[in-house]
Specification:
Blueprint: E1 2-10, E2 16-24, E3 30-38, E4 44-52, E5 58-66, E6 72-80, E7 86-94, E8 100-108, E9 114-122, E10 128-136, E11 139-147
Antiparallel strand pairs: 1-2, 2-3, 3-4, 4-5, 5-6, 6-7, 7-8, 8-9, 9-10, 10-11
């Protein structure tokens, strides 16, 4: 079983956008998709992704954003084996009132497995900060620091 799709829009306050994709082999086969947005108060954005083998197979995705009050942002991630398998993600942000921020993380084995995450922030009213966290079974731990920035109300 195979299929493809494409759609788009132009104007009406939404800017210009498109989405395209296709699949081969049904729910547990191969699928890909990509899309983009220009204008409409959202700046420029693009995304792409794919999967092989359904919800317990392999999946990847990536995207980016420029402008629209958000500065520059990128993200990417992937998973293998569903919610109890292996997953990783990473991203970053520059500008848009947020300064510079980065994050990364991963998990193995689901809710009761192993998980790690790390991140950092510089500027954008947030001061300077970094954090590192982890999880093993029901035990969690976090370590971090923050200097300066606005206080939470």
């Amino acid at each position: 079983m195979a299929g493809m799709y494409a759609d788009g829009h132009l104007g009406s306050g939404q800017g210009t956008g498109y989405n395209v994709g296709g699949h081969l082999g049904g729910e547990h086969g191969l699928g890909v998709q990509a899309g983009g947005q220009l204008g409409g108060g959202q700046g420029i954005g693009v995304h792409a992704g794919g999967h092989l083998g359904g919800q317990h197979g392999l999946g990847v995705q990536a995207g980016g954003q420029l402008g629209g009050g958000q500065g520059i942002g990128v993200h990417a991630g992937g998973h293998l084996g569903g919610q109890h398998g292996l997953g990783v993600q990473a991203g970053g942000q520059l500008g848009g009132g947020q300064g510079i921020g980065v994050h990364a993380g991963g998990h193995l084995g689901g809710q009761h497995g192993l998980g790690v995450q790390a991140g950092g922030q510089l500027g954008g009213g947030q001061g300077i900060g970094a954090h590192l966290g982890g999880k093993l079974g029901k035990y969690t731990g976090h370590l971090g620091f923050k200097f300066g920035g606005k206080e939470n109300a």
